[in-house]
């Protein structure tokens, strides 16, 4: 009786682990607890009923198990059918491998053969439990590998959690159940239930902690992004004030030019024209990509460069028809230029920034070149950028790429984004 209860507990624990694994890797379609509970109860009932009453053959049991598991994934979780088929096969294969490892552990480490395991209920139960814990480790590893792109999560802690709790559980199980003279009592059933609950709870709670860390990091990122938006708004405001002063001054200039013309003071008139041409062709005003926000940012950054005695050379193609959000491009471009400015401030010679932008075949390319103060490792460019996380997040948002080259005395940054 107790053995049957223990088997049911193991099966329930298996279903819970599979659900958590599916939720972490694929995500839930509809978070309906009654539907989730019903589907997993159905899975548990059908697979065990077939195993107990319909067939004792391994192949039929395997096919029923795989089919029911696939049905649960199709109904409850996100992802394509091929992804789910691969997931079903992978988890089942890992389960088989776990059982083999448990048997090998018994035979070569403990010196207990397969026949002895099958004849002794303690050994058989212990082997089954250890295989489940090993399988749990495999699923944890697989989950960590699949979700490794999430840079917000504390990956070192995750790998420690993956091994410490399950391995400790295996040791506890071995101490408690490997006495062939003792049968399985209520206390053993309670112990294994608690061990399984600890493993499941650790995995579940750690995922909750990861979600909290991710949410907190995203909140901090949004705060940083908001601050940078405010900074850009102030910069654009300063530029418009600058332009408004120029437009206001046009009337007075026209009156002065007419006076010079009427009085035949052509030399003074020519000088006035030259001053206006220089003013209009000033680097502050020559960005013309067709996107107002981007032009304003480039023009203002050029003004910042001039204040710091930095020459900014631009090669800007038309960005009309740009399908990427101009705010994202503005944030990306502003951070890249700010990083270049901070680096060039530290050098004495060749104080120049080269900026190129091109949009072709739905692909935006940005090129930034600037000298640096010394021969450094490429990773040190992160120290000069204003917000590296923001740059990377925008690039990742559009599945883009960034390359950083250190060529003797200068950095070359290339960014490619597909719309």
Mind explaining what this structure looks like?
- By secondary structure, the protein is α+β, with helices and mostly antiparallel strands.
- It contains 13 helices and 5 strands.
- It has a 5-stranded mixed beta sheet, with helices on one face.
- A hairpin with a 2-residue loop joins β4 (401-407) and β5 (410-418).
- The longest helix is centred in the middle third of the chain and has 77 residues, at 186-262.
- The model is unreliable at 149-154 and 376-385 (pLDDT under 50).
- Main sheet: strands, sense, barrel: 5 strands, mixed
What is the residue-mean pLDDT, rounded to a whole number? 79
Taking the alpha carbons of the first and last residues, their distance comes to 63 Å
Radius of gyration, taken over Cα atoms and rounded to an integer in Å:
34 Å
Order of helices and strands: HHHHHHHHHHEHEEHHEE
Helical coverage, percent range: 55-70%
Query: Which ranges are low-confidence, i.e. pLDDT below 50, for 5 or more consecutive residues?
Result: 149-154, 376-385
Number of helical stretches of at least 4 residues? 13
């Amino acid at each position: 009786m107790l053995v049957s209860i223990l088997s049911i507990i193991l099966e329930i624990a298996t279903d819970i682990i599979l659900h958590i694994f599916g939720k972490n890797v694929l995500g839930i379609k509809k978070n309906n607890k009654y539907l989730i509970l019903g589907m997993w109860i159905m899975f548990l009932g059908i697979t065990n009923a077939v195993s107990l009453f319909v067939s004792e053959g391994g192949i039929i049991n395997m096919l029923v198990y795989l089919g029911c598991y696939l049905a649960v994934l199709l109904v409850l979780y996100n992802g394509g059918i091929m992804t789910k088929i691969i997931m079903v096969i992978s988890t089942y294969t890992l389960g088989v491998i776990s059982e083999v490892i448990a048997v090998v552990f018994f035979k070569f480490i403990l010196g207990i053969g397969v026949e002895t395991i099958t004849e002794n209920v303690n050994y058989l139960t212990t082997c089954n439990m250890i295989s489940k814990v090993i399988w749990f480790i495999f699923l944890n590893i697989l989950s960590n590998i699949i979700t490794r792109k999430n840079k917000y999560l504390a990956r070192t802690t995750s790998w420690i959690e993956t091994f410490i709790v399950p391995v400790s559980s295996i040791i506890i199980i071995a101490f408690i159940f490997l006495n062939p003279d003792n049968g399985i009592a209520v206390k053993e059933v309670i112990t294994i239930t608690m061990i399984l609950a600890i493993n499941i709870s650790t995995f579940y709670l750690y995922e909750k902690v990861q979600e909290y860390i991710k949410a907190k990091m995203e909140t901090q990122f949004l705060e940083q992004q908001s601050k940078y938006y405010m900074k850009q708004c102030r910069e654009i405001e300063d530029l418009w004030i600058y332009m408004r002063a120029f437009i206001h001054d046009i009337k007075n200039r026209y009156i002065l030019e007419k006076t010079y013309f009427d009085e035949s003071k052509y030399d003074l008139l020519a000088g006035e024209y030259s001053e206006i041409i220089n003013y209009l062709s000033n680097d502050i005003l020559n960005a013309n990509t067709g996107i107002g926000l981007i032009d304003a940012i480039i023009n203002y950054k050029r003004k910042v460069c001039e204040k710091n005695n930095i020459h900014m050379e631009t090669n800007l193609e038309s960005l009309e028809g740009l399908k990427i959000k101009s705010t994202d491009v503005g944030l990306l471009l502003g951070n890249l230029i700010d990083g270049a400015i901070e680096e060039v401030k530290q050098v004495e010679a060749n104080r120049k920034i080269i900026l190129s932008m091109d949009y072709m075949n739905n692909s935006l390319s940005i090129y930034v070149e600037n000298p640096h103060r010394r021969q450094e490792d490429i990773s040190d460019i992160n120290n000069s950028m204003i917000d590296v996380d923001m740059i990377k997040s925008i690039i990742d948002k559009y599945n883009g790429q960034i390359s950083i080259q250190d060529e003797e005395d200068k950095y070359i940054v290339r960014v490619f984004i597909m719309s």
